[in-house]
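Predict the 3D structure for this chain.
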Amino acid sequence: MYRTHTCGELTLADAGKNVTLSGWVQRVRKLGAMTFIDIRDRYGITQAVADNTVTDDVRECAASLGREYVIQVTGTVRERQSKNAKLATGDIELVVEAIKILNTSATPPFTIEENSDGGDDLRMHYRYLDLRRPPLRDAMILRHKMAFEIRNYMDSRNFLEIETPYMISSTPEGARDFIIPSRLNPGKFYALPQSPQTFKQLLMVAGYDRYFQIVRCFRDEDLRADRQPEFTQVDCEMSFVEREDVLETFEGLIKHMFDKVLGVQLPAKFPRMKWEDAMARYGSDKPDIRFGMEINEVTHLVRNTGFTVMDSAEYVGGICARGCASYTRKQLDQLTEFVKRPQIGAKGLIYARVEEDWTVKSSVDKFLNHYQLRAIIDQCKALPGDLVLIMAGDRRQTLSALCQLRLEMGSRLGLRDPKKFAPLWVVDFPLLEWDDETQRYYAMHHPFTSPKIDEVDLLDTDPGKVHADAYDFVCNGVEIGGGSIRIHDAELQQKMFKTLGFTEEQAELQFGFLMNAFKFGAPPHGGIAFGLDRWCSLFAGADSIRDFIAFPKNNAGRDVMIDSPSTISDEQLKELFIKLVPQE
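Done. Predicted structure below.
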């Protein structure tokens, strides 16, 4: 037996026991005749001490230890004289009787500590070492607990966990597919699934009325903090349900997860917001409602002022930052530079301060009179001491910029507490969005999302006005999950394909198997998928999902640890009937 206890287990109740621990050397400290050894495993750290009573062999072994050596230590537990409240085992220490080196270690390229001295690239290269650090260990434990509780809840609600294929046919909608060549079928390819969407619908046709799966999904798209080319979904589908049934079921799952994993009680009923309202009030379909500072449109108040910026703008809107009238010129310039950043793209920022006597001082005083400025601050519900920040331009871009500015101000004012959670359902999304470049409609979610039943006729006359029977779960400005009631009628599905510009031949080629299945009695059904990686980062108060994936890719989509993607041999290419074309 390599160990009788873990390195995070021993307490004062174990004093006097003879135990054996195994783990990695965190650090070694020599103080005169005594050598202190911190030994670490995934459960914690225990201090061991080799004093002047040990044999020469033990003393020499202790002196030879280096960082990250794998060792086995046997000794007696005793109470520490100098306790360490930061450690779970800080009340005791292990008096060493024997040490055995199980394996030596090269000097690690960075410190295996809470806060490491290694940069992102270095730690990604040695990910197996990075995973020894407490933050990543805790992230892996959190992910495990969340998956465990998801399965508990779903099983208690009669859901079956059923696996679906990873090698499927390519689909033209959504992000780019990752493609796999087939050796046995020359010139043909599999694709990795962006989601199990069609398969879970086929399971509904098959009669498995409650399905779920914690499943890997794959999308070949540009990366950012909350994206990875391979990610994990909690994929769920139900038969014989309407929207209310789905929301009630998964509101229950969400509350279960917050309670069991975080000990947080959420409201009995989550608020709901229509997509149009979310965009108008927050400039985003995933609004952070932990704080106010809502966007107010003032376009109608600033027409014909002689100020070209506002007169020519499609949209003018503002937000009210409470108590910020004292902002200095330097602070306002910083905000202006913030909104001018390329990723936001605004041309400038207008401000109006509300003084204690209700007078308004603005950066556009020479263009707007007192009554116009007062109308703006009234529209934005500003009070004395408040600062109104205004932007003008294209409607969509300006709302997006105001959204980013609102979040920035929320962070500056300490209004985005990561330990405070504000759940929200966003509902009634547009079914379709028009693309000017290709001159066609695309599905806002996917082609199998059902339109609102009372708006189906609009597909023939005005498709852009049709709303989807869809819903997103949003918390703290992050979209954690999304789903919809699906189309289960073959005729309506064909109409949807036609609206999206598919010919009958294209629809048959891509989705003929699904359309054929619908001929055999498809039940009404709907579902939702949660991003497990995002959910983990939300629970941990982190900005990136990367720490919650054991072996993630970097921002270029590469695994620098195993040097992937990589080239393959000419023999493999020949076997797959593939010839590479030189890059221009």
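Residues 194 and 432 are 19 Å apart (CA to CA).
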